# Entry
Amino acid sequence: MSPILVIKHGALGDLIQAFGPFAAIRAHHPGARIDLLTTPPFAALMRRAPWFDRVLEDPRAPAWNLPASLRLARSLAREGYARVYDLQTSARSSRLFHLMRLFGARPEWSGIARGCSHPHANPDRDRMHTLERQRDQLAAAGITTFPPPDLAWLDADLARFSLPARFALLVPGASPQRPEKRWPAEHYAALAATIAAQGATPVIVGTAAEAPLAAAIRQTCPAALDLTGRTTLVELAALARRALFAVGNDTGPMHLIAALGRPAVVLFSAASDPALCAPRGQCLRILRAADLRDLQPQTVLAALAGLDAVSAPSP
# Structure
């Protein structure tokens, strides 16, 4: 049986929202070898996932570096893929469709590349939420069954962190290029102080670059635990499984927390549209303010208190 290729690079939130499609593709091709082409930051994570036999890394050379693009296309063409599911659906991933043909590869192709065998031609695709758009794309390629993705592999031993019994996650970061997507650190600090006063430990997570945000929060709430830059993505998932709840901005870790079905409140500004890209989960509340500086901690606390199955501080 000829192998299958799935293309999905990221960012993190986009990758997590493809977990359902990944599971559907695996269920549709139970006996095939399925490879994932992704970027190096997510390769280690996806090698743990149950849906792929191999994870290939694409360093995403700039568009002007044609020799690098040709090398990648040639290596993929040699694999003899029967079908490619391009879930990235970018100009760059679509270009691979044409470059692979230069080396004699003619796989069936699900995506938006001109001339592909299974195009996602829905004129509303750019107005659809990511999850609905990907399902619609796969339906056009003959995949109509979407089993819930098995996320049991997203767990880890957290003994090295010496965590308290009761803690809540705060995710104050977001893309450094999009500061308007961040709820102010002073608001997170006020929220952290209330959480601590109610007997739970605020645990701040994020990248090492977000350590200054954690430091600002801890100035107001010294009881908060700073784990920025100290967790892997799998450890972040393990933290989410054990936390009372999570509060965070429109950023990748919140997609991971929501996908695990954990209680969470996600904060959106006018910089992004939750109708197109919000996390999905079983116990989730989305709050949106045009300017996140206007969203008060009391509003977030009230949203937490309204979540099912969550023990949250009262406002």
Remarks:
- Residues 311-315 have pLDDT under 50 and may be disordered.
- The chain has two domains: 4-140, 159-305.
